[in-house]
Amino acid sequence: MKTVLGKLVSINVRKVLWTARLLDIPVTLEPWGAGVRDPNVPEFLALNPNGQVPVLRDGDTVLWESNTICRYLAHGSALLPPDALGRARVEQWMDWQATELNNAWRPAFMTLHRGSTKFSADEVQAGVRDWNTKMALLDAQLARTGAYVAGDVPSVADVVIGVSVHRWRATPIDHADLPAVRAYMERLSLLPGYEVYCGDATP
Asked: Which part of the chain is the GST N-terminal domain (predicted)?
C-alpha cells in the first residue's frame, strides 16, 4: 500500500491524490502539514529534509516533490507517453506549472485567499496581472490543442495544471475572460476524482 503524507487543503497533495485516483492506485493519506501535524520534526525531516508535503512512501521507497511523485505514479500508464518527445511535451507543462505559474499566483493567492500580510498592495496587483498573463498563455495553448494541455488526450500535466486553474478561479480577483480555459475545465470535470480534488467545493 502506498502512503501519502500531507493534507487535502494542499494543492500539491491534491495533485498526487488525483493522479492516483485516475490510475486506480490505492493510497492512504496520513495527515501531515501546518495546522495538522508539524512536519518540522526529525521523523518527517528524515523523509523530506525540506519539511514540506507531500511525501510518498511506497514500501522502502520515499519520494518528495509533488510533480516528481505524479510522474512516478504515472510511469507506464496512459497519463505519461512512453516516447521521449511525447513525455517531454507533458513534462514541460508540468515544469511550467511548478515554476512560472506558481510564482505568478503566490502574492495574490496568499494575500486574498490565505490572509497573508507579507505582500504590499502593489505586489498583489502586480501578481494578479502576472497571474492573468500566465493563464492567458495557457488559454492560447488550449486553443491550439482544442483539448488538453499536451494534446488530444489527458495526461498527468492536466492534473497539475487543473488544480492550479482551480486555485485561480477560487481566488477573489478580476479574472481574465479565457474561453479555452473554461472549456478545458468542463472537459476535466468529466474525469474521475475531479469534484474531490479540483471542484468548486475543493478547499
From this structure: 1-81
